[in-house]
């Protein structure tokens, strides 16, 4: 067996990712997980993140990877502001462009209401013209997931009933009644 210190950077990253996904968790924080990964491992990582049942906080400069894995982007805008956008990186860029265009058009209109642009600002930032790829895929899988959850619930309820009947039968045998 090869010691970890003898592994390359990419091999160490693959080992670390394997260990992370083998442990049960509901929150995973990944900082630049695509560094030193080959294409095959990168695609596998995308699939694993897509199937992960918890929340993933991901920091990455790999825009394609972000587009393929996230449902919401937080982008540091400067001046201590963080923009929150639905979808991947390219969705966020489209929303930012729409917001800037809306903001640039607002001064051209003569308005006496100062609070209206602030309300429109929030709406424009959060508006979504289309579903991102991941959201559309998640929406398509929703009926299957809810059906599977219902089946699991019925199966568990049946097991609970069987267990209860077995326990009540065991108690009556142990007490001599029956």
From TrEMBL:
Region (Disordered) location? 99-127, 142-178
Q: Nucleotide-binding: present as a keyword of the record?
A: yes
* Transmembrane segments annotated in the record for this chain: none
Q: Where is the composition biased (Low complexity)?
A: 99-110
Q: Where is the composition biased (Polar residues)?
A: 164-178
Q: Which InterPro entries match?
A: ABC_transporter-like_ATP-bd, ABCF_ATPase, P-loop_NTPase
Give GO terms: molecular function aspect only: ATP binding; ATP hydrolysis activity
Please provide the record's keywords in A-Z order. Answer: ATP-binding, Nucleotide-binding
Domain named ABC transporter: which ranges? 5-35
Q: Is the keyword Glycoprotein in the record?
A: no
Pfam families (UniProt xref): ABC_tran (PF00005)
Task: Please state what the protein is called.
Answer: Uncharacterized ABC transporter ATP-binding protein HI_1252
Question: Which species expresses this protein natively?
Answer: Enterobacter agglomerans (Erwinia herbicola)
């Amino acid at each position: 067996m090869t010691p970890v210190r003898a592994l390359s950077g990419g091999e160490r990253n693959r080992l670390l990712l394997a260990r992370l996904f083998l442990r049960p968790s509901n929150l995973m924080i990944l900082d630049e997980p695509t560094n030193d990964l080959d294409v095959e491992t990168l695609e596998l990582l995308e699939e694993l993140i897509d199937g992960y049942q918890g929340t993933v906080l991901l920091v990455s400069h790999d825009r394609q990877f972000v587009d393929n894995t996230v449902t919401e982007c937080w982008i540091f805008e400067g001046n201590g502001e963080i923009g929150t956008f639905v979808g991947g990186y390219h969705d966020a860029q489209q929303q930012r462009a729409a917001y800037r265009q809306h903001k640039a058009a607002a001064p051209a209109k003569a308005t006496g209401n100062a609070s209206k642009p602030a309300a429109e600002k929030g709406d424009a930032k959060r508006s979504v013209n289309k579903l991102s790829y991941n959201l559309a895929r998640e929406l398509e899988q929703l009926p299957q997931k809810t059906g599977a959850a219902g089946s699991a619930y019925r199966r568990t309820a049946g097991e609970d009933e069987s267990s209860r009947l077995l326990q009540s039968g065991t108690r009556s045998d142990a007490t001599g009644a029956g």
